Amino acid sequence: MKIWRSAVLAGVLAVPALAQAATTQAVDVTAEVTPTTNLTCAVVRCTADATGTETCNTTPEPTAVMDFGTLGPADPTNPSSALSSDHFFKVFCGVNTSGRPYTVTQTGTALTNENGVAIPNNAWVFTPIAFVDTTDADNIANEPLPGDAAVGGVASANSTNALWIDTGSQTNIVVVQAAYGVTGDPRRDADLSSDTTGDLIPPTQQAGSYQSSVTWTLTPK
Amino acid sequence: MALLLFAGAGPAWALNLTNNRPIVQETLAPGDAVQGSVELANNGAEPMRVKVYLEDWRYTSAGDGSKEFAAPGTFPRSAAGWVSVFPALVDLPAHGRGHVDYVIRAPKDQALDGGYYAVLFFESVIGQGRAERSAEPSAKVQFSARLGSLFLVEVNGSVRRQATLASLAVSPPSASTPLKLQSQLSNDGNTVLKCEGFFHLLGPSDLVAARGELPSRYLWPGSGAPIAAEWAGSLNPGSYTTVVTYDCGGELVVTSEADLVVR
User: Fold this and answer.
1) Residue A151 CB neighbour total at 10 angstroms
2) CA of B145: which chain A residue's CA is closest?
3) CA A194, CA A186: separation in Å to the nearest integer?
4) What is the average per-residue pLDDT within A113-133?
5) A/B interface, count of CB pairs below 8 Å
6) Over 60: is that where the pLDDT of B41 sits?
7) Looking at chain A, which residue has its C-alpha nearest residue B143?
């Protein structure tokens, strides 16, 4: 509208003729960046075929729950085989620690039903994944760990302060991954060996709703 | 970033929590107090309840920065009992902020010396309650995340920053093996140390023939950690001096030297 244009132009034209001055003056400019830590996590449901090829949903789970569903025979052709969930979950966490190295750890409880009966610890599995995203501009979301960064080993999720990732001296790791499974599959169980009694969820596992909780902890080094 | 793959993909749960004081560092005289606050931000699209509580922490014996956590008052040099926090629960609206106030009050005990430590955790609260009974085994897992603010409190006038590099041993490289360096870094003081290390190989006329970084070390008072490194270069036959240096901040720099003969 002409009115506001006139007002704006008036303001511009009313600027004192500083441009006429021939002197320069240095001005100190300071800015402060407040150090922060930020943790952004989402969980997605995944499956794996007989060759180990994984397929994950593109939409994260809608609530803060990993629902492994009803446990069925790991070998569908053998009703007497050990029990397993037919899917697992991947956790993606974005991390910002204002350029400080950091660690992320996992603490979890046993999977127990309402009678206190537990799923074997080695069948309740936490797997840190040795691929990350860094701050470089290569648009690669799954990069090998840089420098002296390291992830923890496969472990029972029923553990205290199990290492997920230690960034070492690296300050550019911004996304980390891990997987959770309820399984006796020796490719995925917590000791990565052939099945032993401690790894299997027996077909006679007591019925019930097994529950657990896990917490991820981010602290700067 | 992998999470961008999910943008716009529909309703989804995601925890997104920010804390603006990852490190709270104070120096107090016995009997003195200081107050402050930590601001929290919920950057997610859903409201979030955050539980606030104190624990002890300390570096593990690995010296690599990994930590142990325990109930307040468990570890030596615990400052958890010095800190009062309010509130214990914070409700953060979607895309909203909140804050937690704290007071650190050093005891009047004149026997205090050096550093004392605690961690203030901010943990997302997950729903409680057990699912319906199931005729078959089924499994559900609730998850949460927490950020920790490390409290480092030093008693005014009592801090001793001391470290020792010992047992430096260097083996020369060969056609099939790298140069190997080993040592032990110890924290002989009464406050935590974060140390950055490097080494130099000095040849004839003290010219630098090689250099490299050493693993960072995070040491609890009175603890030590091994140092080990390899260098995959080659050296001409001759006599060298290996110089290992660790800078532990606050003008504390420790060095150690060892002779090396390459045949």
Assistant:
1) 20
2) A216
3) 5
4) 91
5) 226
6) yes
7) A214
CA angle B125, A215, A221 (to 5 degrees): 115
Taking an 8 Å cut-off on Cβ atoms, the answer to whether B127 and A207 are in contact is no
- Please state, in angstroms and rounded to a whole number, the distance separating the CA atoms of residues B28 and B2: 44
Position A46 scores a pLDDT of 93
Peptide bond into A120 cis (omega under 30): no
Average pLDDT on B2-23 reads 64
Q: What is the pLDDT of residues A194-207, one digit of tens each?
A: 455 567 888 899 99
Share of chain B above pLDDT 90, in %: 78
Interface check for B228 against chain A (CB to CB < 8 A): the answer is: no
Do residues A65 and B141 make contact, with C-beta atoms less than 8 angstroms apart? yes
- pTM score of the predicted model: 0.85
Q: Which residue of B has its CA nearest to A219?
A: B148
Are the CB atoms for B75 and B85 separated by under 8 Å? no
- A110 chain-B contacts, CB cut-off 8 A: none
For residue B128, what is the DSSP state? Answer: -
Q: Does B25 touch chain A (CB under 8 A)?
A: no
